[in-house]
Amino acid sequence: MIGIVNNFRPDTGIGKYAFSLIDRFSDSGREVELIQFSQEGEDVGRANTRVLKSPRYPIAGRTLSAYYSIPKSVGRGYELYHASSQYLARLARFRKPCVITHHDLAPLLFPDEYPMFLRFFVKKMIKSYKDADRIIAISEMSHKDLMEHVDIPKDKVSIIPHGFDNRLYMPMDKAKCRREMGLPEECKMVLHVGSEEPRKNIPLLLEAQRAVTSSVDDAILVRVGSTNKEYDRMKKGMDIRHFSNVPEEKMPLLYNSADVFVFPSRYEGFGYPVIEAMGCGIPTIVSKPLSMFSGGALVVPFDSPKIISDAIIETLTKDATAKRMSARAVSASREFTLDKDCLLYTSPSPRDLSTSRMPSSA
């Protein structure tokens, strides 16, 4: 049996990655179990999942638990161990064979935007990469950052982009979705999904949206995810609808309610919301750090609100542009499937990971 170790909720990017693997394997004959650590001990309600309570620390509980407690708490006897993120990399010191999925190095690349303790522990955690039998980088950018900042043999790393659940995220009737989510049917809706941490570039999104509302009647912005009080002043007077803690099964309704999806981040290891929006056939605009999605999304600079607002306005006002972008999005989304995430487990024997020829890219 393969043990996938995770300590993030299923509504986060890393958590979605781990739970998606388990969901896909529930339809296969391979024995896989998710070992889910939670400080709350909540029942995640998923098949093939064992929930364990991680210790509470008064400060930085998740980080300290991932470094000190979880690696030694994972039971023995699995044929292969898979750490779902770099934050669990120390698992490779205690359980073999072990695969680590590397998502990003945001705390090290943007030190002013993350607390010092997190930067300190990320540096310590990635030192355990040398103990892993295989590292998975989730994108070319993730791989590039890894090679530049971590001393690890290149042939130890495989590039396998995330996949989305195309059985859940698919085109649906817009009017019906808006009614179910309580959104106005007669409006032009711009959608953004994600947190409001600095690298998500929310100030630029808000500036661009102001220009959109001055040119397009009834244009609204829908934000899904946590908020940052620092941006309250910028949002004043704008028609913004916020959603948080949205169940996974409801997210396709929000995507399909949108006329355009915008994701202007300054940095991303990957970007789950982009492929989910594309899978739903929503015209998609992303910033240059997400150029991996150029086959299905319009790529714009992350530092020009005018270019972004002009792109949004054209998409909202020109049906031909919107239809063309929608078709491109659906077509390109087929390149990001959960089947490719599962390439990890096609190795002839998990115990041969250190020498087997795993895919170098998807």
Question: How would you describe what is shown here?
Answer:
The protein has 13 helices and 13 strands. With 362 residues, the chain is α/β, with parallel strands linked by helices. The strands form 2 sheets. A 7-stranded parallel sheet has the order 3-2-1-4-5-6-7. Strands 10-9-8-11-12-13 form a 6-stranded parallel sheet, with helices on both faces.
Summarize the structure.
With 362 residues, this protein is α/β, with parallel strands linked by helices. 34% of the residues lie in helices and 17% in strands. The strands form two sheets. Strands 3-2-1-4-5-6-7 form a seven-stranded parallel β-sheet. A six-stranded parallel β-sheet has the order 10-9-8-11-12-13, with helices on both faces.
Residues in helices, as a percent range? 25-40%
Order of helices and strands: EHEEHEEHHEHEHEHEHEHEHEEHHH
Oligomer: single chain
Sheet having the most strands: 7 strands, parallel
Task: Give the termini distance in whole angstroms.
Answer: 25 Å
- Please tally the β strands and state the result: 13
Poorly predicted regions are 347-362
Instruction: Give the overall silhouette.
Output: globular
Q: What is the count of helical runs?
A: 13
Residue fraction in strands: 15-25%
Structural class: alpha/beta
Q: Which strands sit side by side, in order, in the main sheet?
A: 3-2-1-4-5-6-7
| Average pLDDT, all residues | 89
Question: Could you give the topology of this structure?
Answer:
Blueprint: E1 2-6, H1 13-25, E2 32-38, E3 49-53, H2 61-73, E4 80-83, E5 98-102, H3 106-109, H4 116-125, E6 134-137, H5 140-149, E7 157-159, H6 174-181, E8 188-193, H7 202-215, E9 219-224, H8 232-235, E10 240-243, H9 251-257, E11 260-263, H10 272-279, E12 284-287, E13 298-300, H11 305-317, H12 319-333, H13 338-341
Parallel strand pairs: 1-2, 1-4, 2-3, 4-5, 5-6, 6-7, 8-9, 8-11, 9-10, 11-12, 12-13
Helix pairs in contact: 6-9, 7-11, 10-12, 11-12
